[in-house]
Specification:
The protein has helices spanning 5-14, 18-47, 55-98, 105-109, 148-160, 162-167, 203-216, 245-257, and strands at 100-104, 123-127, 140-146, 170-176, 197-199, 226-230, 236-241. With 265 residues, it is of the alpha+beta class. A hairpin with a 5-residue loop joins strand 6 and strand 7 (236-241). Helix 1 packs across helix 3 (55-98) and helix 2 packs antiparallel against helix 3 (55-98). The chain is elongated, with a radius of gyration of 27 Å.
Length: 265
């Protein structure tokens, strides 16, 4: 099938009454179709001179049945489109969870690196799924997609905001277009601990799709960049035009200062 059984089960859990609605759509549709056939037979009989007195009523019934079927068809198509959208979103979430990153061992695993001189040098490779809530270390993953020049600026900004990004549980993953790879780094350039680099070829399929969709909406993806922000539960929280790290930090800190929930954003 187009989607795995796990994806279908997840969609059913999120919309438990959809199958009930589908049952009613088909039941009511079957009844309306049966009534329409009978009404059309009576109309044909009336036009042939049989039971002509029932012709007006039969024509009314035909109109009601057709209208009912049209309404049911619209409701069914709308529900079907909503289901398809949820399935695609769940499928993309599952694909995102499998993507691999490499970054600071102390940040990604939560383990302390005793030698501070080597704390940045020690790296760890894992999947985005391991950063979900309840799996030992929780992070808000910010997938920043843009051209090489834009992401070089983003990494410099991440270095300046490193402490704030770490304290806000924000992990930046820069992905360079068009090949969906890690950005090129200077010979002496050090990747800040709040940045993890994409690993593997699976990034291309997802990132390129997101970039093409943004381009259709008039976004200069290479120059401005886009962000896919994953919440701590692993789901996509938001997509943004542009890459604004100070705003992301400010949002978390503001919510924390107001006593609002910062675990599920």
């Amino acid at each position: 099938g187009k989607f795995s059984r796990e994806i279908y089960l997840r969609e059913e859990a999120e919309s438990p009454f959809r199958k009930v609605r589908f049952f009613f759509y088909f039941s009511l549709g079957g009844g309306a179709m049966t009534s329409l056939v009978l009404s059309l037979a009576r109309v044909a009989a009336g036009l042939s001179g049989i039971n002509e007195d029932l012709l007006p009523e039969s024509l009314t019934n035909v109109a009601v049945d057709v209208a009912g079927l049209a309404v049911l068809a619209v409701l069914y198509q709308r529900d079907l489109a909503a289901q398809e959208s949820r399935l695609k979103r769940a499928s993309k979430g599952a694909e995102l969870a499998k993507l691999m990153i490499r970054g600071s061992k102390s940040i990604i695993t939560g383990e302390d690196v005793l030698d501070s001189a080597n704390s940045r040098a020690e790296t760890f490779t894992t999947s985005l799924a391991s950063l979900r809530r309840g799996r030992g270390i929780e992070k808000r993953v910010v997938i920043a997609v843009a051209g090489q020049d834009k992401l070089a600026e983003v990494i410099q900004e991440a270095s300046r905001l490193e402490d704030s990004l770490v304290s806000s549980d924000l992990l930046i993953v820069p992905v360079v277009l068009p090949n969906a790879v890690a950005p090129e780094l200077g010979e002496d350039e050090v990747v800040p601990e709040c940045v993890a680099l994409p690993v593997g070829v699976n990034w291309r399929g997802i990132v390129v799709d997101e970039a093409e969709e943004a381009s259709r909406q008039g976004v200069d993806v290479s120059g401005e960049g886009i962000c896919i922000i994953l919440k701590k539960n692993g789901r996509v929280g938001q997509r943004t035009k542009g890459i604004f790290l100070p705003n992301m930090v400010g949002e978390v800190m503001e919510r924390s200062a107001l006593g609002l929930d910062v675990k599920n954003i």
